[in-house]
Amino acid sequence: MKKHPHTTVSNVRRRKRRSTQRASxxxxxxxxxxxxxxxxxxxxxxxxxxxxxxSTQNHQWTLPNTLKYHPNITEAFQFPFxxxxxxxxxxxxxxxxxxxxxxxxLTNGKVLVTGGINVLSLNSAVLxxxxxxxxxxxxxxxxxxxxxxxxxxxxxxxxxIGGYNGMELNTVELYNISTGLWTVTRNMTYARYxxxxxxLTNGxVLVTGGxxxxxxxxSELYDPSxxxxxxxxxxxxxxxxxxxxxLTNGKVLVTGGxxxxxxxxxxELYDPSAGIWVTTGNLNYARAYHTATVLTSGKVLITGGFDTSYxxxxELYxxxxxxxSVTGNMSYVxxxxxxxxLTNGKVLVTGGxxxxxxxxxxELYDPSxxxxxTTANMSYARTYxxxxxLTNGKxxxxxxxxxAALNSSELYQA
Length: 414
What we know:
By secondary structure, the protein is mainly β. 2% of the residues lie in helices and 38% in strands. Strand 31 and strand 32 (347-350) form a beta hairpin.
């Protein structure tokens, strides 16, 4: 069959329509050796993988649905299909709707969700198995709690710290990943919630800030080897609803939050070797209820939050200089959202709250360009939720609240 290189190949299109693939757009295949003039056009809905259609020595093309076309062309060329899924799918629901809970990705790949609130604070815990897509109940905590933290220790067990259940808590308990049971461990010196907890490179856990009826600037260290707490250096500023990030140099960067009823733009660094806090460059924007993500470059990305209104601004911290620089703004103002670094190095931001209420929007930050792009919306608007990147690269979003507490979970495929 002889066809002019500029002619649409109608028989390919006819045979394509009889295939099981649903046509969604017309994709031109061009000859780069002839000023990228179109050689054929064919319909395609291929958006699930990156492919190349190559001409072979006998000039036979094998299309993805096994149809074959024999053009009368002597030049070889290539046309790539770029992978672009970026979509959400629903997965199994939580046993109990909850928000202000904690989610910890375990060393075995499962996700442990603890506590939260649904009318009253919860002591229940559940495990998500990404291999089955199902939630299963595990041992209950000794104390119901919300606004707590739940870092994964070096031995794989989970340390649940503080929180609130009608009163501020200083209680701490350990989840045994092998048995699914909880044991109490030593209490903190100070009860607190809306604090942060960071696992240091030496395996100890640093707890900073929070509320305990009053603002707390005292920091404490938990040593898993002896199950005991010690007081360490105090923050320079009282703060809660702040962020804490372990940098690649082992120091901990704390940013923003509320302090003495004022939203802060200050940031400070904790040096584990000295046990003291020192101030570093101020944020460009004061913010609380924001997120902080350590990028693969070692820089820290701060997104959104709240000051006198919700924010869409983002900024980057450079550890080598201690300075902040603005980067691209998000498409939506938001606070109480999540930010997760994906396996491709991009950052996925989901949900949160704006002036109009809970959001279902999501967007991606590309560190190589400093630009945000919107991606598919979640099925449910949600705030006070959690997001965990699974070992398969998908992001699991869990619970939260909209008009009421949610039990739904969703998976994002990048």
